[in-house]
Structures are given as C-alpha cells and as structure tokens.
C-alpha cells in the first residue's frame, strides 16, 4: 500500500482555561489517501474544525497540540517551527473556509490575491502567474475569467466567491485540501455546484480532501470515506455507503435516523435524548454513554477504543467480543 | 367546507432601496425598488402545516412577517379567521385575534431577552393578554408549559444563557403556546440547530400539533425538513410562488423546472443512482430581475413567451412550458 497523503495518529488538542485544561480532541486517528475525499461529520462541538485546524497548524494559544503525530506524505508536520509550517500551508495544504467573504481581502482585486499566492509558492513571473490565475478561475467555473480577474470580492456572489477561494486553495497544486464547511453559507442550488467542483478537483488532480461539515447529505454525495466525530473522538469511520446504510455506533445510528430525507416516509424522526456534553464535563468512560440506549456498566468506566468491523471501524464496547448482532 | 383559516391574496411588498436623495442629485441615479414579494396568493386550512420553501432572497420571510402583521404589505390582503390583518376598520377584532397568532424565529439566541428570566419570558403573553389572574396560577401555568415542551418546571428560574440552542427553541415554543395560540408561524425554526436536536424539535412540534390541533406556517430553505413537516408546500422564487401542491405530490412529481432543479440539487442520504438535473446559474439580482418569468435565464424549457410575459399561477404551477405543453419526463 502506498503512503497516505495525510496520516493523523492519536491526536490530542487541549485548550487551557481558567477552570483547567479542556481536551477538545482526544485520540483522533485517520488516514487520507491520494485522491480520496474523507468527510468529517459531527455536531457543533464535536471537534471537527479543531481537527482541521491542527492539521494546517493554525491552533492558536491557549490551544495546543498536546499529543499525537500528524504526517503529510511521510513528513511530520505537527512540531514544525512556524516559519517552515508557513511554507507548507498554502503550497502543500490548501484551505477552504466556510465564509468566502472573510477569506478574501475586500481591498484587493481577486486577481492580485491569487497572483500573490501563486508567486509566494511558485517561481513564476508576474505575467505567467496572471495567466495561471485566469486558467484557475476558468477551471473553477467563473465565466469570463479574463475580465473577472480584475474584480473586487464584493462584486462576486456568494457562490462565485467560494469558487475564487477554491481557486486560491488549489493554485499551488497542493497534495491536501482542507475544506471546513465549504457550502454551509450557500444556497442549495449553488451548494450542488460547489460540491461537484470539489469532487472533480479531487479526481482530476489526485488531491486528497478533508471535508469538514455537519451536513451528512453533503458527505454522502462527496466523500469516499466518512469519520463520525463525537465529543472530540472518532466514533465511527468507514466507507461512506457502509456508514450511511449500516451505521454501527449507536450515535451514528441515531444521527442517520435523525436526518429527514427527501425519500423517507413521514414517520417520526429518531430522537437521541440530550445533547453533546460540554468539554468541561465529558462523562467518564464512553462519552456517549449517558445518551446511549445500549449503555452497560463497562461503558460508564472504560473508554472504548476503535475496533475494526469489516471495512468500518467503530469505538463502542458493544462490538467488543460480541460476535452476534446484539446491537441491532 | 368552511373558509380557509388563513387567506392570503395577491400580497405585494416593495422596498425602496434607492440611494439617499442628496446622493441621487449629486451622483445621478434614479429611484430603485426591490419587489421582495410580488403577488403571492395562498390559503392555509385549519390544522395543516403549510410550508414556504425557497432559496435566500426568495421572499419567504417577508411573506411570514406580513402574515403575522409585523410588516405592512404594499398591497394585497391577509385574512386570518375572517379578520383582515391590514384593514384599519377591523382593529378591535384584530386585537382579539392577536392572541391566537404567534411566531417562532430562527435564532433562539436572539429571540429571547437575555435579561429576562424564563418565567418572565413565558408569562409575558399571559400577562399581556390578561389570560390568568394571580401570580401563583401564572407560575403554575409556566411550569405546565415547560413540561409540555420537555423542560423541567424548575427551569423557569433560570436565564436563557443557561440553556443550549435546542432548549432555547423549546422555551420559544412554550412562549408561543402560552397564549393558547392556534396559528404559529415558524421562520426557519431548526436552521440554527444540530441535526439530532433538530429531530427533537421537529418531533415536538408535530406532537404539539396533534395535541392542540395547531396550524403551522413553516418557512424553511431545507427541503428535507419541509418534506417531513408539511402537508402543503409553496415553492418561492424571486418573490413569487412558482409551484404550490400537496407535500407528497410536490416531492413525488415536481412540475415547475425550478422545483425540479431544486429537488435535484439537494444532497441526500438516499442519493445513489439518482438522475440529477445539472444546476446552472444563480438567483438573479432582485432589483433588476429578468423580464417575463424570473427563472427563464436558468430554465432548460424556456421559450420566447417566457422572456416576454410572467406566467400566472394556474393549477398550482406558474410556468408557461408546463401550462402550454406537457413537460417531458
């Protein structure tokens, strides 16, 4: 097997606060292969965005990476000095954030912003960089790019701005793109366009994509594999079809049933009682146990480790040494 | 059959978005108007859930605000249980009607006063309409309402910041029920919530509807949520209703090309092998909408009539192509 583009091992992220240290990420591990799209899904506070930020080295104090390792194509990047990390960020890892208006500088023409980024990372002349910028804008589907390149961000609609941000993210041909809720601020019809764009880029350039979103529908349409996060841990990870159709973890099961679908019938939605625990009050043992209908004694004292189960991997005691489908 | 509970007729709302007078004189330019809602007509029967769905800027929230009387319409009428929301002569009847109409807003962080304790928030409608006399009885009623929405009666002594988003939305629902409302307008009630919490709130809203025979007007951009909640659905595009149908019918057999595109664009869990209509273009600028049917620049079926003349809503669809020729499946 070839080396994964991104390999995260037992990542731990802590935030120091007045009331002690809060652990936002607690032992997260996953790989993303070349050309693969990994969806990271979870509710607010699950730690999806913090995972993305730690990979690109943007965890600011009081937060810090307290343990674990992050490798980018074999190179360990979680302990690099800021200066070296800056050369990797943008060149080898591209970023797409939720709000395209805040990712672009409103005072500069979008062309200048793209040219600046290209010339920071690649050794190109002003003219060559501008030609490349026009090609990039055309590739992300902006009509008349040779005219639009001299426009300011406010002259673009939300969907078009997000396309510009994607052009910025791919301008140095990165190995990995981190997209944090890239379509959340957009309307459905525009969202569909952006999703197919991200999918096409991964396919055409062999870029690995980490797609962070709360929208399971977006994941189902875009990703090859999905990681379901809960309270700073990966509850379940596996191929997207398997996790959507036959989720194993009780939380993943509840989550899939809680999503209204267009094809579904009108019956009541599956309801998970309660809500995600605060970081200051993560329950002992499995963090999901107070909300779990299948919790037993072991869940309240011992934290479950990920167990392989076919192509999926699930962190739940129900699947430990229980060969039958007792959790169905 | 009796008259519909809510009758909305030819509702219009125009906003003046011109530059200030002095700028117009010095810099040139002319008056500009934005037709946020342009001739919207629908009925809501008692006990049903009528949903308006559309993308941002389609005018759904503006319609909701005019229906409850938070915003005066530029023209057109809203009749609720036979009482006009606009006619000044019916003001006394409207005052009696107010109690029976409530609204739930999108952002539960903004719709609850952070300086009010929960009991003050929920009892406000009770006190304003003088429904219950005596402090003890009011507090008992507040406790009852809190248990109704799945909170603890003792929660009435807390402040909004002590609750999560989903719990706040429950408080907002309790407040809406406090005046024994019959008609509740819900503007994106679950858009700010996580999916597992959204499921709790949607289930709660349906339980309360069964229990009290509530009538909902439900505004959302999320088609799957609308599919789950609504008995009838109106699809809005640039200030007009382009298609209106029974929920089941609309999602099984969408007729207007825009509805088809919208349904095709929704990322869905049960997506595999679905025939997708590729989405093209974006919503045009509402200040300067295209002539004729506003959807014509994006429509695969558009022909010259669509560019000249805005289609009327005939038999639930406002589309020249559908109304003059059968749509190819």
From TrEMBL, chain A:
SMART domains: AAA. GO terms for biological process: peptide transport; transmembrane transport. CDD domains: ABC_NikE_OppD_transporters. GO terms for molecular function: ATP binding; ATP hydrolysis activity. It holds the Pfam family oligo_HPY. It is found in: Cell inner membrane. Residues 8-256 form the ABC transporter domain. GO terms for cellular component: plasma membrane. InterPro entries: AAA+_ATPase, ABC_Ni/Peptide_Import, ABC_transporter-like_ATP-bd, ABC_transporter-like_CS, Oligopep_ABC_C, P-loop_NTPase. It is a peripheral membrane protein. Keywords: ATP-binding, Cell membrane, Membrane, Nucleotide-binding, Transport. Involved in beta-(1-->2)glucan export. Transmembrane domains (TMD) form a pore in the inner membrane and the ATP-binding domain (NBD) is responsible for energy generation. Belongs to the ABC transporter superfamily. This is Methionine ABC transporter ATP-binding protein. It comes from Bradyrhizobium neotropicale.
UniProtKB/TrEMBL annotation, chain B:
The keyword Lyase does not apply. Keywords: ATP-binding, Nucleotide-binding, Transport. One of its GO terms (biological process) is transmembrane transport. It holds the Pfam family ABC_tran. InterPro entries: AAA+_ATPase, ABC_transp_ATP-bind, ABC_transporter-like_ATP-bd, ABC_transporter-like_CS, Oligopep_ABC_C, P-loop_NTPase. One of its GO terms (cellular component) is plasma membrane. Residues 6-263 form the ABC transporter domain. One of its GO terms (molecular function) is ATP binding. It is found in: Cell inner membrane. It comes from the Bacteria. SUPFAM superfamilies: P-loop containing nucleoside triphosphate hydrolases. It is a peripheral membrane protein. Belongs to the ABC transporter superfamily. Involved in beta-(1-->2)glucan export. Transmembrane domains (TMD) form a pore in the inner membrane and the ATP-binding domain (NBD) is responsible for energy generation. This is ABC transporter ATP-binding protein. It comes from Bradyrhizobium neotropicale.
